[in-house]
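Revision sheet: structure tokens.
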Amino acid sequence: MRHLLSTKDLSRDEAVAILDIAEDMAGVADREVKKLPALRGKTVVNLFFEDSTRTRVSFEVAAKRLSADVINFSAKGSSVSKGESLKDTAQTLAAMGADAVVIRHSASGAPRVLADSGWIDAGIVNAGDGTHEHPTQALLDAFTIRRRLHGPDARGKALDGVTVTIVGDILHSRVARSNVWLLTTLGATVSLVAPATLLPVSTAGWPVGVSYDLDAAIDAGPDVVMMLRIQAERMNAAFFPNAREYSRQWGLDDERAARLPAASIVMHPGPMNRGLEISANAADSPQSTVLEQVANGVSIRMAVLYHLMSGSDA
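Predicted:
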């Protein structure tokens, strides 16, 4: 695997292999010295054209735990804010000897342009592009689900037969798109629940069921309920009447959370709007994996960087 641009590009075997490598990487966090020499002498550039805390820090920690050198490149306050193009930025990074570039960009497809351009000979990792995809988030979600269902000794296992309900702002969510493709590749059954205004114009070709009724979805007893953040910064029109109305119809409140089977998992990619998409009790309940997702993000990103840069699946 040369780049990680989309979960659509991953075969079932490749996805399981990354999850298995992440199991090994998870053990590093329990060591007294949280370091592996696997990528010593390699340089990872975090190229973030959009604001991010969780993802950028997670990639930085992952690279440093593998002993790589890390360069954090933020568009704000850089030459990009002065009008420098993606091509010029890429060529500058190439001149610095970057071995991998982790890119987050507001334009859908920017990571693929970088990967296909020939401007830089480095592995490209998509850390979120527009409303397109966020593959490492989907991988860490799959890793979290697998660990909850099968425990940490789940190597070689996929998610066959697992039912996943993704709820909320599907229209603007790159997390939802990446999860749809990855989870179905791993054998899960995925359904989407949202107001009609927060669904894409067409989901034809998506391997999912679509519903507008969260209560019916909850009563079906899914194994996983994934609540999505309302992305107000990407909205320039009235997608729902008001926050109170949205929360009443499509929020995971205390009453809905109580109706879930005891073994069901509650997920959220963060950052959470507590009281809007999810109640505080639901977010902090034993069924919630919110903090596990953050911790597992480091393990998954270590696995992805290792997979891309070591030239080996060992």
